[in-house]
Amino acid sequence: MAAAPDLVFKALADPTRRQLLDRLHEHSGQTLAELCAGIDMARQSVTQHLDLLEAANLVSIARRGREKLHYLNPVPLHEMQERWIDKFERPRLRTLRAVKERAEEVMHDKPSYVYVTYIESTPEKVWDALTDPDITERYWGHRNVSDWQAGSRWEMRRIDGSDAIDVDGTVVESDRPARLVTTWARPPAAGGGESRATFDIEDHGGLVRLTVTHEDLTEDDLRDVSRGWPAVLSNLKSLLETGSPLPQEPWLLPVRA
After folding, report:
1. Of 99, 87, 128, 89, residue with least CA distance to 210
2. Other C-beta atoms lying within 10 Å of the C-beta of residue 201
3. Distances from the Cα of 2 to the Cα of 42, 116, 145, 227, 241, angstroms
4. For residue 52, what are the contacts with CB-CB under 8 A and spacing of at least 6?
5. Element (H, E) at 210
6. Is the peptide bond preceding residue 177 cis, with omega within 30 degrees of 0?
7. Residues 79-135: pLDDT tens digits?
8. What pairs with residue 68 in β-bridges?
9. Closest-CA residue to 77 (of 89, 59, 62, 90)
10. SS3 146
11. Closest CA to 219 of 107, 77, 85
């Protein structure tokens, strides 16, 4: 479930908060000190603005050591656009075009992509939906196979009868139902390279806050996951909340230029 529209409108009504969102759009993944630079305001006041933006789900937080990194979360803006501007013109799962340009320079010591969504479910059911091959087949179009123990191998297998592996990797951390960390490696024929995906699953007042952090991406991978994660996670949300995935596989829908 997204933040209440009133809270989103309130967050956008203040020019300082809009300035903070503009700065995160230009360069996502900034610390509080970086965001305070150039703003003639006490650090505590900037923190209060960021807290309100986070409450409105417009900003998401990822921790790296003692630092808190702030990321623009476009989902509420996308939902407002669909509801108030063009819900009759676009498929509701179209990736928000306004976020197609991320930071010009990908920092390898910071997460490359962060996506937050709220699901009316339980942490245990969300965990199972991410790890049970029979469930992933229903909403992901692949079977995610592993025993999901730290150090074990995991595989993303096709369901077209070939059983081909599109992605595999290692389970780095497994703490059911709160946190799952995996490496992702594509076959050499698909470009190779290894990245890292973290799934943080938190109870949020009867809802589940699911944060996906995908890091160490190439520029091509960043473009792909920016389109792929919203589609996959929207399908997951629909399955858990309604019992059925979306009527069309969202990654097969054309993306408008």
Report:
1. 128
2. 24
3. 30, 10, 30, 19, 13
4. 10, 11, 17
5. strand 207-215
6. yes
7. 776 666 655 554 444 444 444 444 344 444 445 799 999 999 999 999 999 999 999
8. 63
9. 59
10. coil
11. 107
**Cβ atoms of 241 and 221 closer than 8 Å:** no
CB 196 within 8 A of CB 183: yes
Facing residues of 119 across strands?
Answer: 208
d(CA 131, CA 180): 10
Of 34, 56, 62, 58, nearest to 46 by C-alpha is 34
Single-letter amino acid, residue 149: Q
Q: Say whether 41 sits in a helix, a strand or coil.
A: coil
How long a stretch of residues is the chain? 257
State whether residue 153 is helix, strand or coil: strand
Instruction: Output Rg (C-alpha) for the chain, integer angstroms.
Output: 18
CA 101, chain centre distance (Å): 16
CA distance 25 to 187: 32
- pLDDT tens track for 169-182: 999 999 999 999 99
Give the pTM. 0.60
How remote is the C-alpha of 137 from its chain's centroid? Answer: 20
